[in-house]
Design brief:
alpha/beta, Rossmann fold, 2 domains, six-stranded parallel β-sheet, three-stranded parallel β-sheet, binds ligand L34
């Protein structure tokens, strides 16, 4: 079993991006600028946005955190979106999800200028991705493909089983893994909460991507010997062994499953850090495209 080290891989990519930023700076061009909108104070969202801002600093680009209280109305948030769309200094921005229940995620995402949509969530960018046009790829799926590529894990013709059908991970990663490209080209099966006898599918997986949002959902009896496991889940469970009072676990029962795999991503330190570098990559792309439309 080999661990797929997302932390190490993301550090390498950040170094590559820092070199790119140096070149932009040396050429006297505008420093790329990412803005992140955060509504409310969900502790997990705060951690992720803080990690994004920190990563921008590490590679030498500008970032702005736009924080609003849980009570902000949808109309007010749409006004914020309008300002970010119009701000010539902001190359790209994200609206961290989930949003409070009284705000329609769909209406907010539709209001984002597709050219600044570095999460790749706007239907215009989703459509580009699906049809294989150059697009901002959604960060977590792009990070997963990058991990498989950098670990030189063969994907062509393999059976990739995805568990979960969210717009953020399951659906887009199933599309990327089925693309006719060297580091994809899989036969893809998409399973979800309503799949009957899910084990019958997971046992066939050469590559199993788990994004169902249920702690320890995948157990050893569901995994084929030698499979590659990508665990996208991240949950805080109470623990008396840590100072924070919680520990992080994934959608996969790592202890049980790891001995059966050829490769597996840990939680933390697997997919999470890759999500962040994909966002940085999209931001540099956005800045370039704004410079040369
Ligand atoms: N708009 N909303 C928008 N874009 C996104 O790309 C996200 N996502 C998901 C939630 N909502 C979003 C993220 O940023 C999940 N996500 C994310 C980002 C980073 C990490 C995990 C999820 C991450 O850095 N994980 C670390 C541990 C962090 C911790 O200590 O909690 C890891 O090693 O997995």
């Amino acid at each position: 079993m080999e661990l797929i080290d997302g932390k190490k891989t993301s550090a390498q990519i950040k170094q590559e991006l820092a070199d790119e930023v140096q070149k932009i700076q040396a050429a006297g061009k505008k420093i790329p600028h990412l803005a992140a909108v955060l509504v409310g104070n969900d502790p997990a969202s705060e951690t992720y946005v803080a990690a994004k801002v920190r990563a921008c600093r590490e590679i030498g680009i500008k970032s702005t955190e736009c924080r609003y209280s849980e009570e902000i109305t949808e109309a007010q948030l749409l006004e914020v979106i309008g300002k970010l769309n119009a701000d010539p200094d902001v190359d790209g921005y994200i609206v961290q999800l989930p949003l409070p229940a009284h705000i329609s995620e769909q209406r907010i995402l539709l209001a984002i200028d597709p050219a600044k949509d570095v999460d790749g969530f706007h239907p215009f960018n989703v459509g580009k991705m699906v049809t294989g046009l150059p697009a901002y790829l959604p960060a977590t799926p792009a990070g997963i493909v990058e991990l498989l590529k950098r670990y030189r894990i063969p994907t062509r013709g393999k059976h990739c089983v995805v568990i979960g059908r969210s717009n953020i991970v399951g659906t887009p990663v199933s599309i990327l893994m089925s693309r006719k490209e060297e580091h994809a080209d899989c036969t893809v099966t998409l399973c979800h909460s309503r799949t009957q006898n899910i084990k019958a599918y997971t046992l066939q997986a050469d590559i199993l991507i788990v994004a169902i949002g249920k702690p320890h959902f995948v157990t050893a009896d569901m995994v084929k010997e030698g499979a590659v496991i990508i665990d996208v889940g991240i949950h805080r469970v109470p623990s008396d062994k840590t100072a924070s009072g919680f520990r992080l676990v994934g959608d996969v029962d790592f202890e049980q499953v790891a001995p059966r795999c050829s490769y597996i991503t840990p939680v933390p330190g697997g997919v999470g850090p890759m999500t962040i570098v994909s966002l940085l990559q999209n931001t540099l792309l956005a800045a370039q495209q704004k410079a040369n439309p």
